[in-house]
Design goal:
- With 161 residues, the chain is mainly beta.
- It has one domain: Jelly Rolls (Sandwich), CATH 2.60.120.380.
- It is 7% helix and 40% strand.
- It contains 2 helices and 10 strands; from the N terminus they run αβββββαβββββ.
- The protein has a 4-stranded antiparallel β-sheet, with no helix packed on it. It has a 4-stranded antiparallel β-sheet with strand order 2-9-4-5, with no helix packed on it.
Length: 161
Amino acid sequence: MQATDRVIALVELFDTDTAQPGTPEFDAQPKLFNVSARAQAGTGENVLIAGFVLNGNMPRRLLLRGIGPTLAGFGVPGVLPNPQLKLFDNSGKVIAENDDWSTAPNGSAILAANGTKLGTLTLDARDAVLLVTLAPAAYTVQVSGVNGTSGVALIEIYDSP
């Protein structure tokens, strides 16, 4: 593959449970816990994007992460040196953002949710983390580089109790 080649991928996951939220049948069903993707995060139209939809009638607490520097510890070359996360609602409005999890206003909650760990490694202070509670709706989260940088990043969406 040439350096100028672009690879665009779309992965869709659907939870087809039919039980109503709040019922014993719903609680007994397995649920999707995490979705993640590792890809090149660029600038402009080439930022790393993940869209997701929360169904049901109750808010959900989610942990969203944009990881770059920590990946170097796993031997990943060309990592995004300083990722930033932006969370958009379905109208395209930014509703939360983070650059450097260590400066997040809810840093203690992120620590309590173990949101600063990738396996046994603690995330680099420059990695981005959001811990949010969201109403059922469609959302988009984007990972890009601070100051227009680019590189390999990992985007993750976790259901967080």
